[in-house]
TrEMBL record:
Cofactor(s) listed: FMN
An annotated Gene Ontology molecular function: nitronate monooxygenase activity
Family affiliation: Belongs to the nitronate monooxygenase family. NMO class I subfamily.
Organism whose genome encodes this protein: Serinicoccus chungangensis
Record PANTHER family: NITRONATE MONOOXYGENASE-RELATED
Pfam families found in the cross-reference section: NMO
Highest taxon above the source species: Bacteria
Entry protein name: Propionate 3-nitronate monooxygenase
Amino acid sequence: MAGGVTTPLLVAAVSDAGGLGMLAAGYRTPERLAADLVHVRDLTTRPFGVNLFVPQRLDRAALGDEVEAFARRIAPEAADLGVRPGTVSWHDTDHWEAKVQLVETLAPPVVSCTFGVPDAGVVDRWRRVGCEVHVTVTSSVEARAAAEGGADVLVLQGQEAGGHRGTHDPGVDPEPVDHLGLLELVRPETDLPLVVAGGITTAGDVRRALSAGAAAVQVGTALLLAPESGAGRTYRAALRDPRLGERVLTRAFSGRVAGALATGWTRRYADAPAAFPVVDQLTRPLRRAAAEAGDTHRLHLWAGSGWRAAQERPAGEIVRELAG
Ligand SMILES: Cc1cc2nc3c(=O)[nH]c(=O)nc-3n(C[C@H](O)[C@H](O)[C@H](O)COP(=O)(O)O)c2cc1C
C-alpha cells in the first residue's frame, strides 16, 4: 500500500504472522526504498515482497488541455488550503529503471507489479536472481497478458478493492467484477497460482476464496487501522466516521480509478481526466494540506468495500484471525 500506509513494521508484522508482507515501492524514491527494504530484512527473517507501479506512457498531446483545465478548476480549493496545485511532469517520476535495478540487486523473495506487465527482459532479470514475480490483473484479458509475460503468480483484484485498480490501460474503465467473479473467469484459463483481492476482511471471506480455487488472498483495507500502518490521523478518523457511509470508484484524486470513501471532492471531480500520475501530482499539495488540517473532504480516503470491518488491532492478530 503505497502513499505512506505500508511501513517496514507493517510488512514485518504481516510476514511474522505467516502472511506475505508487501513493501510498497510506488511514490518512494529508490534511496528510501532501499533503506526500507534493508529495514524489513532487519525486522523479519520471513519472506516478504516489494510492489512496483509499472509506468504507462501518457499522451500529453491528447490530455494536456484537459489536465490544464483541471488544474485551473482545483486552484481555488488549493488557495482555501493555503497551497497551490502541484507541478506536473509528463515523464516517469517514479524511477522505474532504478527500482527494477534495485530489486535485481537486493533480490527480495517476491516482486509484485501493478498497473501493467513489465517487459519480458525485466521479468527475466528478476527471476534470474531468484525473485518470484506476481502481476496484478483486473480482467481475463490482462490475466492472459500477464501469464504470457512470464508472471509466476497472478493477483486477481476485484472491484471491491481499496485504493487504485490495477487496470493495465489507465484510460479504460475497469471491469465491474468482484474477486470471486474474476476467479471464475480466469481459473479455467491458467494453471498459475491465483491470489484474489478485494473486500476480504473475515476468515469466512478467506475460506470462500480458497474453496473457490484461490491459492491465497490479498488484503489491504483490513490492515489500515493496525498500529503498524502508516495511515495518518485524518485518514484513520474518516475510516471510523459514521457520516462517511458510501464508497465510490473514482479518478478524482489521481486520474486512475480507485476505491475510496465518497466525499465532497469525489462528487465535485468525478470527471477528472484519466491522466495518472499527473492528476495525482496536481492534487498532492492539497491532499497533504487537507490531511494536516483534518479536512476529510479533500483527502483521498482509499477504502475497500469492507472498510467498516477494519480493526484497530496489531497486524499480526488480524492476519492470524483471517487465516482462521
Ligand atoms: C491505501 C491503499 C493503498 C494501496 N496501494 C497499492 C499499491 O501501492 N500497489 C498495489 O499493487 N496495490 C495497492 N493497493 C491495493 C491492494 O494491493 C489490494 O489489492 C487491495 O487493498 C485489496 O482490497 P481490500 O482493500 O478491500 O482488501 C492499495 C490499497 C489501499 C487500501
